[in-house]
Specification:
The protein has 279 residues and is of the alpha+beta class. The chain has 2 domains: 13-124 and 263-277, Diaminopimelate Epimerase, Chain A, domain 1 (Roll), CATH 3.10.310; 152-254, Diaminopimelate Epimerase, Chain A, domain 1 (Roll). 18% of the residues lie in helices and 37% in strands. It is built from 5 helices and 17 strands. The longest helix has 15 residues, at 81-95. The N and C termini lie close together (10 Å).
């Protein structure tokens, strides 16, 4: 089925952003209606014939603003930490403020703050640790799942499955990630992380995101791994998280899991008639 062009938004202006190479297309729908279908999202995500992204974010009116996320396969996602930070950084700069509340579809109100060093921090909320909240398909111990490698399950608005290994470099991330994403224990599929403990406040992590595949970084995955490591007693609650695309700092506080790191607004663009003609 051919995706239909939204006649109210014919040229589709968008922003391209990234956090540590975890890249996003962001559409601001506060002034114009935007209709998205799974085929259209997949066409936009195509890095050869579309724009290309790990996730797509749509901004609407909210407390300060509301964001809805989509994966590259067209499915909707309830959380995307790096995109949240990117959008928050731009919005705070435009408004001349240092704090913002973002309503995330499926996750609720999240707080963002801008530091003097240009780093943007977002409180990703409290982790979900009970099996039914992750969610899992059965009542099992989320700290040691009945899966080879005994991973940890954590909900951060989206489900996560975190493996702790001796060396992340030797993991066949494409094969293992794809297999675990669709494991029967995860009825909504899952993000998959492989993490290596470098020290009591330092983790090296690689990630497979559900609906997208291997990404250079993932904010919600970083939060999930930090929570899992602290619950296992492998680290403290404040850690440096080294990903393929760079470094985030995760701090699991009483009020939620705070994630801090750099953001980049790369360019603004718009879709032309040639894109729609090629669908």
């Amino acid at each position: 089925m051919r995706p239909m062009q939204d006649s109210a938004f014919p040229n589709w202006p968008f922003m391209k952003m990234h956090g540590l190479g975890n890249d996003f297309v962001v559409v601001d729908a506060r002034k114009r209606h935007v209709s998205l279908t799974e085929p259209l999202v997949r066409a936009l995500a195509d890095r050869h014939r579309g724009v290309g992204f790990d996730q797509l974010a749509v901004i609407n009116e909210g407390t300060d603003l509301e964001i809805t996320f989509f994966n590259a396969d067209g499915s909707q996602s309830a959380a995307c930490g790096n995109a949240t930070r990117c959008i928050a950084a731009r919005e705070m700069e435009m408004r001349g403020v240092d704090a913002l509340t973002l309503d995330i579809t499926g996750r609720g109100a999240l707080q963002a703050v801008r530091g003097d060093d240009g780093v943007t921090s977002v409180n990703m909320g409290q982790p979900l640790l009970d099996w039914q909240d992750v969610p899992l398909a059965a009542a099992v111990d989320t700290l040691s799942l009945p899966i080879d490698g005994a991973p940890v399950a954590t909900g951060m608005g989206n489900p996560h499955c975190s493996f702790f290994v001796e060396d992340v470099a030797v993991i066949d991330l494409a094969a293992r990630g794809a297999s675990i994403e669709h494991h029967s224990l995860f009825p909504e599929r899952t993000n998959v992380q492989f993490a290596q403990i470098i020290g009591p406040d330092h983790i090296r992590m690689r990630v497979w995101e559900r609906g997208t595949g291997i990404t250079l970084a993932s904010g919600s995955s970083s939060c999930a791994v930090a929570v899992a490591a602290a619950r296992r007693g492998l680290t403290g609650r404040s850690v440096r998280m080294d990903l393929d695309g760079g470094t985030l700092h995760i701090d699991w506080r009483d009020d939620g899991v705070w994630m801090s790191g750099p953001t980049a607004h790369v360019f603004d663009g718009f879709l032309t008639q040639s894109f729609w003609d090629g669908l």
